Amino acid sequence: MILYTLNGNGYIDIAHVDNKKGLHVYVNLTNRCPCACTFCLRQTKVMEESNTLWLSKEPNVEEVLAEFEKYDLTDFEEVVFCGFGEPLERVDDVEKIARELKKKRSDLKIRINTNGLANLIHKKDVSGQLRGCVDIVSISLNAPDKQEYLDLTRSKFGIVSYDAMLEFAKSCKEVVPSVVLSVVSILGEEKISKCQKICDDLGVTLRVRPYEE
Ligand code: SF4
Q1: Pocket test for ligand 1, best of 26, 31, 89, 153 (most atoms within 8 A of CB)
Q2: Predicted pLDDT at 83
Q3: Where exactly are the structural domains of the chain?
């Protein structure tokens, strides 16, 4: 399933949605991710194989664009790169797809939901690639400090991950109109206010997502 949308607690291929007006379309590009978050559904092997977002093969740029060709882009509210892995593992392809979509409809809102570790993945600052083709970068902040972040995400890059993620947020701020850091409400008031301070210092927005079991 390459293009999907949220359907209650699950996901549905947009091909099966009758009315596509105002749809938030999610692009599922990869299962790869440098993290192994304790709360991620990828952690259970059964979910991996049975979940419809698990890709047996990554779609290439042409295949993703061919999927979009089937629909009227003016119907969509936004396009979100998100899935069962980290979309910026494929930053070059995200850029190509986003630029093609913007060529067809320049006012189409494009968002990336990311763990913010792209610069560690690619060993260079890739934020500049998002300039002019991405409107919102939403990064999972997860925690108010580096150790708690590492305990939760189990990032393969280790303790440097948190600072790298914040640095990525800072560089994205220079090139995309909106940067959002997100946490889940279960974190509690005290930690959320620490996260708010981090966001205020960075000049980005904090989004507190409701906790879903
Ligand atoms: S960063 Fe996202 S995809 Fe990767 S393990 Fe964590 S929750 Fe799962």
Answers
A1: 153
A2: 79
A3: 3-209
Of all helices (H) and strands (E), which one includes residue 179?
Answer: strand 178-184
CATH class of 3-209: alpha beta
Protein residues with CB under 6 Å of any ligand 1 atom: 33, 35-37, 40, 42, 85-86, 115, 153
Cβ density class 110-128: b for 16+ within 10 Å, e for less: bbbbbbbbbbbbeeeebbe
pLDDT score for 20: 95
Structural tokens at position 131: 């300039």
pTM of the model as a whole: 0.95
- Alpha carbon distance 88, 113 (integer Å): 9
Residue of 31, 35, 47 with the most ligand 1 atoms within 8 Å of its CB, for mutation:
35
